[in-house]
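Hi everyone,

Forwarding the result from last night's run.
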Amino acid sequence: MIKNIHIRNFKSLKDISMTPTALNLLMGLNGMGKSSFIQTLLLLRQNKESGLARFALNGPLTEIGRGRDALYLNAEKELIGFDFDLEVDSNKDSFSCELAYDAENNILNNSTSWTTIYWTIIPCSIMISNI
């Protein structure tokens, strides 16, 4: 189960943290980051086959566009970060992913690699609602 999620400089999300529970409700006005939050999970799942070494922004689960489309508009650094704290069968683990924006090629490069990543079905429900 995901114990904590921290997202930096991804789309409309400048710097957010969330501790998910069994049921989560994401609500807010249009453009506030509800879909961007979900796209984070989909994006990481979409790239699991490559071990996140080669990061594809477009695939069967989500379509982000080009590298610039994924980067927060007013980012101070051209880096996108995803941090997760996990717990599976009483084993705690965490991983971080840092994507650097390459403006010349308009792509994101992943400099992070992991030895262990849990790709389990997340026992967590998320509801999205516009106000």
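The chain has two helices and seven strands.

Cheers,
N.
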